[in-house]
Amino acid sequence: MQVEISLKDVPALVGTELGVSDWITVDQTMIDAFADATLDHQFIHTDPERAAKESPFGGTIAHGFLTLSLLSAMNYAALPKIREQTMGLNYGFDKIRFGSPVKVGKRVRGRFTLSEARYRGAAMLMTTYDVVVEIEDEKKPAVSASWITIVQFDPKDRPETD
């Protein structure tokens, strides 16, 4: 069950790990669908036999951008819902690192630590999360990133700030 918090509570949570997502299995069907969507059919992603023979990975691996894109699903599963939020937007990333490949069949999950929260204008809260995408049973993460999002809300719901 997803936790719900108030907009006024968010700034006090800076520095706190706010959630860890459920595990997501990255299978060949997912990798192939991503390859089709992005037109990236490099053999290390889409040809299990060739990848087993010619790559150092022993089989196919997920695209780094596929792993990164799973942050959206992980976010919804792990982070508290902000009661006053009317919409959420991706703003961008300050830093992304692909630390370790995700081999086909592996499970990944995201850890989200709120590193910054500041109001912008009358109806936006900009949040920055330090995110790590872990690979089950591996020490090195698949992805580490600083992810910036915007929480949109009705201006009448903006809390008083000091």
UniProtKB/TrEMBL annotation:
Residues 13-130 form the MaoC-like domain. SUPFAM superfamilies: Thioesterase/thiol ester dehydrase-isomerase (SSF54637). CDD domains: NodN. InterPro entries: HotDog_dom_sf, MaoC-like_dom, NodN-like. Gene3D superfamilies: Hotdog Thioesterase. It comes from the Bacteria. PANTHER family: MAOC-LIKE DEHYDRATASE DOMAIN-CONTAINING PROTEIN (PTHR42993:SF1). This is MaoC family dehydratase. It comes from Rhizobium helianthi. The lineage of its organism: Bacteria, Pseudomonadati, Pseudomonadota, Alphaproteobacteria, Hyphomicrobiales.
